[in-house]
Amino acid sequence: MKYIDSHCHLNMDELAGNLGAVLRSARESNVLRLLVAGFDEPSSAKALALAKSHVAEGVFAAVGIHPHDAKTCPLGRLPENMSAWVRDERVVAIGETGLDYHYDLSPRELQRECFRQHIALAARTAKPLVVHVREAYDEALGILRENAAGKNGGVIHCFAGEWRHAVESLDLGFFVSFAGPVTFPRSTVLREVAARVPLDRLLCETDSPYLAPQPWRGKPNQPAYVSAVYETIAEVRKIPVETLAEQVWQNAARLFGWGV
Ligand code: NI
Q: Is the pTM of this model over 0.85?
């Protein structure tokens, strides 16, 4: 069996400080592909550096500016480095980008403009988007639709919306990715969504070091724990976890173009 972790932050100190052990533990847990997502300029540079120096461990990068950090982009413009990074073959996606109206750490108009700039960059480079949405599903999906983001597709990462948002994401041609919260006892609605998303449009991730799944909830998360996300989703779909893992492996290869 082989797993992918479609979204993690090996570029954050919590994991980067212990990288050897984190990657070893991932490998021992059969997590053989990992996508490291950038969230600002330095962390995007770091994601790319990690992808280049850990090819054998299956590390790939996404580069982007998280909506929290949109305030670092004057007028929503992306850092100049971004267009060069995106041309690197280890960069398989643009993100994370999106809208976060829960924390509102950047002005909303700036979040929206920065998000549009990511969509434009994805269109120019024909790479998929890694989209973060919190308490802004209708608006984020509207922006994706208005800007024809479905053309190169992408993933709504750490999905936490309602079923109708999943339907709209799928209509746009996006994948839906589930993280640790799908394992939490109270996440009944989220598990229902995870049970209904078409099998060929679903991804699994940790979003580590955040959101450790049961039974590690509350502890620092790491890619090795992604198996808990797969197990929960396989259980609610009443399929063997091997079947799910194989399908997610194929899905990620199709979306990120990194080969099977
Ligand atoms: Ni993230």
A: yes
